[in-house]
Design goal:
Elements lengths: L6 H16 L7 H18 L4 H16 L2
């Protein structure tokens, strides 16, 4: 998935840049960026009375569909 026209690849690069900007102290540690983001997304879900697990299940389905494109 390294094709420059591949939307998931472009999205991955875009979110990585956004996470590096949001968590500059860990910008070089992708594992930590992802961990911070997941924790903050859970806080956001709580704040808006959303079930993170349900959202994650839907997101996982979208991810799987995008992988086969």
């Amino acid at each position: 998935m390294n094709d420059s026209n591949n939307v998931p690849d472009i999205q991955a690069d875009s979110i990585l840049s956004a996470l590096a900007a949001a968590y500059p102290d860990d910008a070089d540690e992708i594992h930590r960026l992802l961990t911070h983001a997941l924790a903050d997304l859970r806080h956001m879900a709580d704040k808006h009375d959303l079930d993170f697990g349900d959202c994650d299940t839907i997101a996982h389905g979208a991810y799987l569909a995008e992988r086969v494109q």
